[in-house]
Each structure stands twice: as C-alpha cells, then as structure tokens.
Amino acid sequence: MKNRSLSLPTDLRVTEAFWRLAQDANINHITVKMITDEAGCSRGTFYYHFEDVAALASVAIENEVIVSGNLPRAIHSTLSLDPNGLGLVDGDDVHTQRIYLALKQGSPTIVEKAIAEAAIRTWRFLLCRKGEDFTDEALFYLRFFMSGMRYVVESKINRADIGGNPHISMEYMREVMLLSVRRVCEAQGTSEGEFRERLEQLEKAGWILLAE
C-alpha cells in the first residue's frame, strides 16, 4: 500500500509524491498521472497548485534548498571559522539528499535554475536593503562563486576526485567562500557587520524568512 499521507495539505502531498517517484524515475519522465496516482488526488487538483510537472519540480527543489538552510549555514560556518562542514557540500540530511537526487535524476536546466533561484533569494536577503537589488558587480561575483560550488557538489555526487586531499579541497572552498562574502559585500555596499546581523536573523528564525 502506498504511503500517500492523506492528512497532509494537498500541495505538500503532491511534492512528497514527486520525491518518492524521483527515487526511481528521471524527473523528465514523471507524468501528471504518475503524480496524481501516487498522491491520491485528481488532475484538477494538481493543476490548481502547479502549471505542469516542470513547475512542480522547480518548486520542490527550491523548497528543499530553502528549508534545508544549507547555504546560509555554510556561510555562517565559514564566517565563524567553524570546521564542521560546508552545508550543501557536506550535508547528509533529507533535504540535502533530495537536492543530490534531483541533480542525479533531473534535467540540468530545471535543477540548476531552481537551486540558483533559491541561492539568489538567500543572498538577496543577506545583502540587499528593502527595495534594493544587486549591483551588477555583486551579481557577477555571486554567479561566479555559485558556478564553482556547483562543480564541487556535482563532483561529490559523482564521487569524482576534486583534486588531492579532500580536506584540503574543502579548506580551499572555505577560503573561496570567505573571500566571496567580502567581495560581494564590498560590491553591494553592505558592511560585513550588517551582513552578519542578517545571517544571525536567519539562524534565529530557523531560515523561515527565506520562505516568505
């Protein structure tokens, strides 16, 4: 008997059904019928919440990045010189595992777009004042940094060697992240003190601020 969790809100039932199906199927091959059968809901209900499967996949992946809090946690660990990991790179919680699963099973375009949007939302909260957007220079640094992090994550997923001693590689990524934070703050005109205060807000709020 399938675990449909009928007591859950419908949109959550649908996203949970999506993740169960993704365990065995490429995201591109998952259909609306497969999802509605797994979730125990009608096609009309599905389309009330999501435009299509690609939209569902994007929302589901972005939510996992936001809910996991791995990006802000990695930034916080770096700024506090915490040696206990780099969030998305080192994480083994269910949210991180789902991100790994999406990268393995999904269309690179859908997955990368969803992760990038969640990452940009995180950085926007940390860097931008109300009504403000990124400067061109800050956005350049962010995209450059995120492309490097994507390579490290994909290498770990594929169990590929990212160069020499893995501890040295992770230490290098910490150095890059620390430099990136400083460069982006300078480019955005945000002080490191202000940046740290917003990071503390995220930590105290349990990252819920990113889901608003």
Mind explaining what this structure looks like?
With 212 residues, this protein is mainly α. It is built from ten helices and no strands. The two termini are 35 Å apart. 31% of the residues are buried. The chain has a domain of 120 residues.
Morphology: elongated
Give me the strand/helix succession: HHHHHHHHHH
Terminal Cα separation, in Å? 35 Å
Q: Radius of gyration from the CA trace?
A: 18 Å
Helix residue percentage:
55-70%
* Total E-strand runs: 0
Name the structural class.
mainly alpha
Share in β-strands: under 5%
Described by strand count, sense and barrel closure, the largest sheet is:
none
Overall pLDDT, averaged?
78
Individual helix count: 10
Low-confidence stretches: 1-7
Keywords:
single chain, 212 residues, mainly alpha, disordered N terminus
Give a short synopsis of this structure:
The protein has 212 residues and is an all-alpha fold. It contains ten helices and no strands. The chain is elongated.
What is the secondary structure topology, with strand pairs?
Elements: H1 10-22, H2 32-39, H3 43-49, H4 53-68, H5 70-79, H6 94-105, H7 108-127, H8 136-157, H9 166-188, H10 192-204
